[in-house]
Prior knowledge:
The chain is of the alpha/beta class. It has five helices and ten strands. An eight-stranded mixed β-sheet has the order 5-4-3-6-1-7-10-9. It has a two-stranded antiparallel ribbon with strand order 2-8. β9 and β10 form a beta hairpin. α2 crosses α3. The chain is globular, with a radius of gyration of 17 Å. It starts with a strand and ends in a 9-residue tail after the last strand. The model has no long low-confidence stretch (mean pLDDT 89).
Amino acid sequence: MQELMVDFIVSLDGYAAAEGWPGWWGLEGPEYLGWLDQQEESDYTLLMGANTYRLMSAMSAEAAGQEADYSADEAASLTGLEAVPKIVFSSTLQNPLSWAGTRLVSGDAVEAVAAMKRDGATPMRTLGSVSLCRSLLAAGLVDRFRLVVFPVITGRTGRERIFDGYPDVSLEMVASRTFDGRLQLLEYVPTVLAGPPGAAA
């Protein structure tokens, strides 16, 4: 059985990104970037939805062509995704896809990921894709839930609230780490709950 990890970077108030802020909220430091470099991306298959595919494939192409003002670290991270196996779940995208190494799955994502966990050759993790991650977690398919929390509150400019619409979930912490004295990695094993603990059935 292959493992599935949901993987988010998040502001303290639960946003995936914020309008007008730079990548990583401008707070990436050498310790965090070094950790990212050590991650064996090719050991995973990346899962994403159509919106994330459109955004990230365009950013990767811009970084490769030096068409946008990315920092050297952002550009390396984006172009490095070219070599990673990727699956996008979409009923609107059409083959052939322009981003190398990407396979399109047009059927039900929950059913497809359940089959990939059972029969696949590599572990999986998500890239962005808030609604896809919510569906996979609600279906009980997520083995690890990993967050890197950035110490900002972006209540006015934040985009994509990650946890809205989630079921109740208990989280058992299995790893934690602080990067550069300010970023907090938190890794959990999630258990989807029918309701609050102790509530009447």
